[in-house]
Amino acid sequence: MAEMDTSSGGKHKKGPGVKKSKKLSTRVDLTPMVDLGFLLITFFVFTTTMSQATAMNMNEPKDDDVENQKKVKESGAMTILLGRSNQVYYYFGELHIEKISEEFKSTNFKDIRKLILDKKNATPIDDLMYIIKSDSASTFKNSIDILDEMTISKVPPGHYAEVDITETDKTLIRKTEEANGIK
Amino acid sequence: MPKVKIPRKSTNIDMTAMCDVAFLLLTFFILATKQKPPEVLAVTPPNSVSSKAAPDKSILVTMTAEGKVFLTLGDETKKDAILEDFNKIKGLQLSGSEMAKLKKSEFIGQPANQLKSSLASNREILPTQMPGIPIDSTNNELADWIRSVSNVYAAASVDVKDLQNMLLVKGDNAALYPIFKKVKQAFKKNELYKFRIVTNSEDIPAGSELSKQPPTN
Fold it and tell me: Where are the alpha helices (DSSP H) in A48-139?
């Protein structure tokens, strides 16, 4: 192995006065080096982020054919509104003016999953429709996150759609934001 | 009683072989790691549970946190033709050297009317200093760029489906929704209704519907 023969070959005796040369072993303890090697490996393995970017599919509707627009049953519709500061608002079916404060509810991204799932389980699949509206103060992350929630809750494609926000919705969001103190 | 002599064995193990293995692995990991090119535009994409890998060759639209929009033409074979087409349609009258310079830059992020003057100057303009492609509803230049892209791919008889697979939108988490909406409109104007969003992959949350029946692909 990593050893050299340092012994002066044979057993012949040296004469008196001839100093015996010290035999130095060239054998090095490699344990620290192994330690270092594995430490570096561990370091590299942990710091390397396996960040292979993924791609999410996005299908947009053609918006020119007004006649073909799908009518949604009120009982199966859930409108999800994305607002400022990652706030989520929602209501079921249509809003009734006299009961707006009860029907227009606010939530967040953590709780919306359960709400989506509850609605999905409570509604016949043919009637189910999630309407997603994004306020101009919501971010790109919000709109991707809510689409991701649809995938997570296995809402079949075609049962959720992005729709332009209406003025009524906007004012309702503003009012709720003011009431909840969200800037 | 006679003593039983137990032969003492040395506990020293030869570490050479282990050392070899360790460094071999180390070398392998260092060499096998593909270096990520430094990102000129700092964009943190959102997370999603999607597990499909993003294609390498792509038409990439980047949205920064400040709301600037950039275009990256990833397909080198078609880049010339796309730039030529845009030059012709917009009547920019770019010279050969200016075209070559435009081709060399990774990000396109200037309004068409500023393109020629900025290319003519010797000063290198960093993407961070560019104003971004205008995407207002009155002057959606991104739509013009996408039209040039789709023109060129149609001329090369590339199927629309294949082109749609190459369309990527990469946005910063903090980019506001209206920017994204205008980017979508730019695609829609060119009758491209499908595209992909670049995301960081994320684990499927435990207990969700998707985790009970993970997608097959």
Answer: 100-103, 109-122
Structural tokens at position A155? 């809402």
Give the CA radius of gyration of chain B. Answer: 26
**CATH number for the domain harbouring residue A80:** 3.30.420
* Domains contained in chain A, number: 1
- For residue A141, give both structure tokens: 């992350």
> Under a CB-based contact definition with an 8 Å cutoff, are residues B58 and B197 in contact?
no
Give the residues across from A153 on adjacent strands.
none
Separation in Å, CA of B141 to nearest CA in chain A: 20
Pairing of strands A129-134, B69-73: unpaired
Taking the CA atoms of residue B66, residue B71, residue B72 and residue B75 in that order, the dihedral angle to the nearest 10 degrees is: 160
Flag whether the ipTM exceeds 0.95.
no
Residue A113: give the domain boundaries: 74-180
Residue B168 lies in domain? 64-201
Q: Would you tell me the crossing angle of helices B141-155 and B76-90 to the nearest 10 degrees?
A: 120
pTM reported for the whole predicted model: 0.71
Cα–Cα distances in Å, from B183 out to A31, A124, B50, B175? 59, 35, 21, 12
Residue A41 belongs to a domain = no
Q: Name every chain B residue with its beta carbon within 8 A of the beta carbon of A55.
A: 50, 52-55, 168, 196-199
Q: Which positions in chain A touch B197 (Cβ < 8 Å)? A: 55-58, 144
In a domain, B159, yes or no: yes
Structural domain includes residue A65: no
Count how many domains chain B has. 1
Q: Rounded distance, CA A57 to CA B167, Å?
A: 10
CB-based contact A143 B177, cutoff 8 Å: yes
In terms of average pLDDT, the best of B12-21, B48-57, B207-216 is: B12-21
pLDDT of A51-105, one tens digit each?
A: 567 777 777 777 665 555 667 777 788 888 888 888 888 888 777 777 777 777 8
